[in-house]
Amino acid sequence: MNFIPELGDKIFVEVKNIAPNGNIELLLRTPKEYQVMQVEKQIPRRKTTELTKYLGKLTHISGEVIQIKQTGGPTIFSISDEDGTVQCAAFEKAGERAYPEIKSETIVKVIGEPSMRNGALQVEIRYIRQLFARDAAGIKEQIESAIDRRAEPHEIKFLIKSDILEKMKPRMKNAAKSS
Asked: Would you give the DSSP letter of residue 34?
């Protein structure tokens, strides 16, 4: 008699074979002892500006959650990295907040599939998790460095020749950057 699991049933399996096409052959098992481990596929990080090259492909982005919006359908997370911002959609149930543990201003890792939705780029979230410690600090540092580079004022020549203005130029540039 074949066992047919119901939604929500916890079952234990052994991976017997992984076919070249990606199909996985599983054997039902009943272990005496077991340990639960979270594993994660290693996918190279992409920047928001690169996502159009990876439409429909599983992609990894990391950045800061700058906004969370609950719609009548999915939860929309706005994720900002050093290059820009992208909308990421996660769906649990209609109108139900997906990933309630994820808050604004946290650094996250998103695995999902970029797609075009209503003429705009959107990532369909497979999973999202908050990053901590060194991982979060590294992403935050990259974002802040990019903001500093973009805030750097352009070199503009004075309309008049003045030694005094030339000496004040570094301070003016610094004031323009920090404004």
From this structure: -
Closest CA to 61 of 80, 35, 40: 80
pTM of the model: 0.72
Cβ(64)–Cβ(107) below 8 Å: yes
The H or E element containing residue 129 is strand 120-130
74 with 98: CB under 8 angstroms? yes
Report the number of secondary-structure helices (H) and strands (E) in the chain: 2, 7
Q: Are 108 and 101 in contact, with CB atoms under 8 Å apart? A: no
Q: How far, in Å, CA of 92 to CA of 10, rounded?
A: 20
| Distances 114 to 117, 121, 172 between C-alpha atoms, Å | 9, 7, 42
For 29-62, the pLDDT digits (tens) are 888 888 888 787 789 999 999 999 999 999 999 9
Whole-angstrom distance, CA of residue 38 vs CA of residue 24: 18
